[in-house]
Amino acid sequence: MEVAKEAGIEVNRGIVVNDYMETSIPDVYAVGECAEHRGTVYGLVAPHRDQGTVLAKHLCGVETQAYTGSILSTKLKVSEVDVFSAGAFRDTEDTRALRVQDEWNGIYKKMVLQDDQVVGGVLFGDTSDAAFMQKLIKEKSPMTEEIYQKWTGHGGSGSSSGVEQLTAEDQVCDCNGVTKGTILATMQEKGLTSFNEVKRHTKAGGSCGGCKPLVEQIIQGEMGDNYDPDAESHTPICDCTELSRDEVVEAIRSKHLTMVRETMNVLDWKNDEGCPKCRPALNYYLGMVWPKEHEDERVSRVVNEQRNANIQNDGTYSVIPRMYGGVTSPEELRKIAEVAEKYNVRMVKMTGGQRINLLGVQKSDLPKIWEELGMPSGHAYAKALRTVKTCVGSDFCRFGTQDSIQLGIDMEKAYEGLSTPHKVKMSVSACPRNCAESGIKDVGVVGVEGGWELYVGGNAGVNLRGGDLLCKVDTEAEVLEVTSAFLQFYRETAAYWERTSMWIENIGLEKVKAAVVEDLENRKRLVNRLEEALEKREEPWGKDVNDAKTRTTWYKEPELETTTKQ
Predict the structure, then answer these.
(1) Is the predicted pLDDT of residue 26 greater than 80, yes or no?
(2) Which of 5, 52, 139, 446: disulfide with 453, CB 3.0–4.6 Å?
(3) What DSSP element (H or E) covers 257?
(4) At CA 407, angle to CA 401 and CA 412, rounded to 5?
(5) Fold for domain 383-535?
């Protein structure tokens, strides 16, 4: 707004735009929360998409209808109850209402008519008719006997459901602009059979989650009796058991199980020894539920975590020491160079996480190199925090608004060694130019004037995903508090091997916000549980270097074995 004012652009409650989103200065446009159209500033996602569509076509010279405003609608979950409203839903002297109230099932429906046209409504307890209502409002449908029968539920066997009345062009997910036709076409093309698969491939239901009932109705209509909405929540963690992730975690908690073999025995595992899929998962879940009592079982970890290094395709290993916030020193660089030369390291390479990778290290040389480096493990092999990438920040950059380096260092020291369901990457950028690529990290922090924005669930891997804005905070202490709560919520609710990007799509961003940002008491509890888990951390390289038995068992050093026997 301030920029617009200074530029001489007309502003009121927002930047005033016409029906093609053009401001008072030709060829300057505004859309979204900053734009005021016909006296209205829209704060919801769907109107912004409508505005963007009109503007994009206008700029490209494609014929388009003018933007005349959007029908406001919103879906919420209040105390676990679904609520939906759209259009002009309040009673006035010029309106009449058609109400349905079912106190037994906790359902209330209200349709508002003006001049016998549908202009708005409210749904409480059951929002499955939301898309049907929006369609009626958008088309300014006159009330008919068919609509009346459908709304009141008196249509008999011949009446059709709301989802059946939607056309392929009708929008189902307002947050991400997904139509019924897109969902059906994607299901047929990719063979999708579940809500989470549809959400993953189309983004329908991936933001607020309010359209989930409607999406499930579409899936049900396409698959018929073959659709099982509960199938995903009961997927066994592996072939050794019929129990799902949630069932296993609940059993660990309720039966106070603390060891992998004990868990497999008590829960009647089909394979007494478990498998490479379930043993690491059980080891993680036990440590997550009982951080003080569970003793980490090295033999149940994957091979990289057993050796505290990544095995390469030729059987050698890589060594990546930690460099907090991507910052190093001449002394550290000299140590790395000396070690690389002494142990004939095949390649020294910079990583994307602002660290140095020593490639081609023999297994027996691993503890020797760690000892001579005297640097902590970078956990590049682990389901844990990998890196906190930073830009140079306000200390050096002309555009930096915040001290990104120090915050990055603080975050890395706070969470290094924390066990998580999958690897976690973070970054801190000092300004919205985002030089540290904070938009594609599990946790990305961006400095803005007067504070920080936190983005979560980003991924730069095979399945590229931009991070979701979790919240904006004022101080570095708040960044750490929210990040701690987010990490603990992820630790407690995600499946082992599940990245934050996939987890957020499955659980829904609104649920994460509710647990981590909005419920302050719950946030404190999450932070306290995370701090309890952090108390048990040990630096793995230093621990192995100082344990002769471990060096013999895991790194097979003949000289140490001889010394020990003497």
Answers:
(1) yes
(2) 446
(3) none
(4) 150
(5) Sulfite Reductase Hemoprotein; domain 1 (3.30.413)
